[in-house]
Amino acid sequence: MKVELIGHTPEPDFTTGMAALLTHSELQPHLLKKKDKKQVKNILDYVIKMGHTSVVEHSLFTFSISGVSRALTHQLVRHRIASYSQQSQRYVKLSNPHYIIPPSIKKHPDIKKKYDKCIEDLWAFYENMQKKDIPLEDARYILPNATQSNIIVSMNARSLLNFFDLRCCLYAQWEIRKLAYQMLKLVREVAPVIFSSAGPSCKTKKICPMDKKKCQWYPK
Amino acid sequence: MKVELIGHTPEPDFTTGMAALLTHSELQPHLLKKKDKKQVKNILDYVIKMGHTSVVEHSLFTFSISGVSRALTHQLVRHRIASYSQQSQRYVKLSNPHYIIPPSIKKHPDIKKKYDKCIEDLWAFYENMQKKDIPLEDARYILPNATQSNIIVSMNARSLLNFFDLRCCLYAQWEIRKLAYQMLKLVREVAPVIFSSAGPSCKTKKICPMDKKKCQWYPK
Amino acid sequence: MKVELIGHTPEPDFTTGMAALLTHSELQPHLLKKKDKKQVKNILDYVIKMGHTSVVEHSLFTFSISGVSRALTHQLVRHRIASYSQQSQRYVKLSNPHYIIPPSIKKHPDIKKKYDKCIEDLWAFYENMQKKDIPLEDARYILPNATQSNIIVSMNARSLLNFFDLRCCLYAQWEIRKLAYQMLKLVREVAPVIFSSAGPSCKTKKICPMDKKKCQWYPK
Amino acid sequence: MKVELIGHTPEPDFTTGMAALLTHSELQPHLLKKKDKKQVKNILDYVIKMGHTSVVEHSLFTFSISGVSRALTHQLVRHRIASYSQQSQRYVKLSNPHYIIPPSIKKHPDIKKKYDKCIEDLWAFYENMQKKDIPLEDARYILPNATQSNIIVSMNARSLLNFFDLRCCLYAQWEIRKLAYQMLKLVREVAPVIFSSAGPSCKTKKICPMDKKKCQWYPK
Question: Which residues of D touch A151 (CB under 8 A)?
């Protein structure tokens, strides 16, 4: 899995802090811009801690993600307040088997061996079908969930906070959880105030939408 | 593929027609309701033909869809102005191989035979992994795009018009195009005015977003 | 203020309950439909109480609202996961002064008298400008926030739950709070399970996004 | 009216062009980034002209807008794929009359004089009510549509293209049309490829959603 932050609103904490300020001020925006940056960020911090996260929508974060499974991307694109551009399996011929191996399978050498063999066979069949004039978009029906994909994703900070709420949770599927923590690390570097307390909802809101009794993370 | 319309706003043409009327009338809604139904629908028809489709958002259509591939559902859920509840591969053990066979593969008995065998082997391995304590959510990494899924989808009429624009097109992938035409048939029965001229964008807007020269459907 | 529920997905509790069931079942939707209704609603109730409200999106509620101020509608249309058709001030000539009087003004007869007079004068000027060839869309610049408007609104149940969270709160502005409680009363009649515990976020989530110390509603 | 572009995704043409490239390429994103910038922009240009505008969602533009009427902002916030932070009339006391005068009124000195007087009287009453313990949120019911407001708005490029389609049209209301052209000028400077042919739908799509016969702009 390779995740990069390829673009974002410059100075996300200051820009969104200014938006917070504007709603309760008589000053025009060009005067707000001259405010002390530290003070603006303090206001943002206060506003977010009160739960008013609408202002952080004024910052967008664009990630390039590669080396993730189609199992992951099918979950990812369910987040609707976001933009996606994904490598097409209809138009892109995948020349070699690139696929994800879950850790639970890696742990069992015999299963892993069979898994590798199985996917190599699938790929040979995928290529074979194409040679026999099966269209690429149909040959790919045989490709597994494990198949790797590339995707560019943009989310605003509010949608990201929700994404982290759900996908940093221990009940989230391991691969998308791993992605979520990598994304969180990247955005925290450029927007420390917005994402200061981002994470699973048990940490951010003291709410567990799953079975907290069975969760080893949930504070006892 | 099995598609059913399991719920929708009652009288979609009249309800959305009333909304069209309200924007340009001094009358209060409870008086508008008493208007002649035929007249209201005529206004709706005029408004839609002018391209003002925002009013048709006041009607929602809920479909249950089963016997479609995960290749299809991954495309379907990219439509963001919609609601989805999909059978989870993380929680539901798929006890028998249920999968889609593309028509291009059905046509070649030898390829089809290999395709069937290949998927049966995958399923045996999927079940075998579970017996060896691989979690269901990881075992499913081996399942192919062809695997069947069930999904409940709700879209408002405006989002549906856009869905038909894109997915009734001859360039759309065959399986989702087949779904689109089945959905269109169902909604036209209950909302004939809204969907009277729904279909691919070459028909609705005389716009081809693909290569119209190569399209056998595009009017020469 | 006059609020009517002019349309909704039939049997919202059962339809959305079925969607909840489908995600964790191997059964196809047409078999789920035959399930005992009581049992389906119990599952829905459980799912909502855990905080998984995505399934209730499969029900839409359409309201006609009249006799509310433009101050209210400007707040209302800020809810983006919703559909609106509002009486246009650009196209509809408002022939008589229809306006809202806040209760705090009604309480002071002398202020109320001046308020009434002031708005009557505005209206006379509004009509006078039109006679002197000022376009309607410009003459209306003089009309006050208090001016009445009609609007048709559709929201799905998930968006409504969020609307009630925010607008049933004691800190919400009185007019939109009044609207929220009227809407809640109407939807609870047709979808008692979905909306059983809807209301301000202090009641639904034990979260106060405002100053709970100053709130007379907040449980001490 | 004062409009500033206070933040945007850096290099919008290149970032969104990369997203276009990724969908049809086997290359991973970090390799795409090394592509020749000119070539990437040419691909973007081609893709947009074909009507595939989803990739431009990967760029966000944030504007600060001041000196516009509440008549304008009520229209503006109807664009739902966008983020808004607006000066609150409930919390911000507007100490002096700041208001918009439509050009059609400016042209008639006698009407303008009465308009100015009328608004000054309103403001005096607004301040007077506050002194008599009418809450600010209720006193503002008397303020006119003409009252100035400040607002920070963020839209992605796809939503902006739609905004320009509708609001650069000669049938759009003059104030929001003026805003649209100022916004278009600003974004074209930083994203010339994305917005090269942005404008009213008669120019971008040869579609007129209004009465083209009466439009002096529509090409005869």
Answer: 22
- Which pair of structure tokens corresponds to residue B106? 């059905």
Residues of C tagged active-site: 167
CA distance D61 to chain A (A): 8
Is residue A71 within 8 Å of residue A149, measured between CB atoms?
no
What is the C-alpha separation between C145 and D122, in angstroms, rounded?
A: 12
Residue A220 has a pLDDT of 66
| Cβ pair C207:A51 closer than 8 A | yes
Q: Give the contacts of D53 (CB within 8 A, at least 6 positions apart).
A: D157, D158, D161
Please count the residue pairs, one from chain A and one from chain C, whose beta carbons lie less than 8 angstroms apart.
Answer: 13
Q: A106: how many CB neighbours lie within 10 A of its CB?
A: 12
Look at residue B114 and give its three-state secondary structure: helix
**Residue of chain A minimizing CA distance to C212:** A50
Q: Reduce the secondary structure of A171-200 to three states and give it as a string.
A: CCCHHHHHHHHHHHHHHHHHCCCCCCCCCC
Measure Cα distances from D93 to A25, A216, B129 in Å: 9, 51, 67
**CB proximity list for B80: less than 8 A, separation 6 or greater:** A80, A81
Q: Cβ contacts (< 8 Å) between D142 and chain C: which residues? A: 115, 118-119, 144-146
Around Cβ B213, how many Cβ atoms within 10 Å? 8
**Are B71 and A134 in contact (CB < 8 Å)?**
no
Among D101, D114, D138, which would you mutate to test the C interface (most chain C Cβ atoms within 10 Å of its Cβ)?
D138
Sort out which chain C residues have CB atoms less than 8 A from A51's CB and list them: 207, 209
Cβ pair C132, C69 in contact under 8 A: no
The tokens describing D102, both together, are 């439509």
Task: Indicate the residue of B50, B205, B209 with minimum beta-carbon distance to D50.
Answer: B209
User: Which chains have at least 3 CB atom pairs separated by less than 8 Å from chain D?
Assistant: A, B, C
> Which DSSP state fits D25?
-
- Going from the C-alpha of A216 to that of each of A177, A197, A213, B117, the distances in angstroms are 16, 20, 8, 42
Please choose, from the candidates B16, B10, B12, B13, the residue with its C-alpha nearest in 3D space to the C-alpha of residue B38. B13
Residue of A nearest to C79 (CA): A54
Q: In this structure, which amino acid lies at residue C19? A: A
The answer, for D84 touching chain C at a CB cutoff of 8 Å, is yes
Per-residue pLDDT of chain D in tens (220 residues, 90 and over written 9): 999 999 999 999 999 999 999 999 999 888 888 889 999 999 999 999 999 999 999 999 999 999 999 999 999 999 999 999 999 999 999 988 999 999 999 999 999 999 999 999 999 999 999 999 999 999 999 999 999 999 999 999 999 999 999 999 999 999 999 999 999 999 999 999 999 999 999 888 888 888 888 888 877 6
Q: Which two tokens stand for residue B186?
A: 């169902």
Any C CB within 8 A of D118 CB: yes
Range in B87-91, B158-162, C28-32, C96-100 the model is least confident about: C28-32
* Residue A111 DSSP SS3: helix
What pLDDT is recorded for position C207? 85
Active site residue B140: no
Length of chain A: 220
Closest CA to A7 of A50, A45, A61: A61
Q: Identify which of D129, D92, D119 has the alpha carbon closest to the alpha carbon of residue C105.
A: D129
Range name among C136-145, C206-215, D182-191 with the lowest pLDDT average: C206-215
pLDDT above 90 covers a percentage of chain B that reads 85
- Touching C (3+ Cβ pairs <8 A), the chains are A, B, D
End-to-end CA distance of chain B: 33
How far apart CA D90 and CA C78 sit, in angstroms, is 15
User: How many CB atoms lie under 10 A from the CB of residue B140?
Assistant: 25
D128 touches A at CB < 8 Å:
no
Nearest to A154 among D25, D58, D65 (CB): D58
Residue C211: per-residue pLDDT: 83
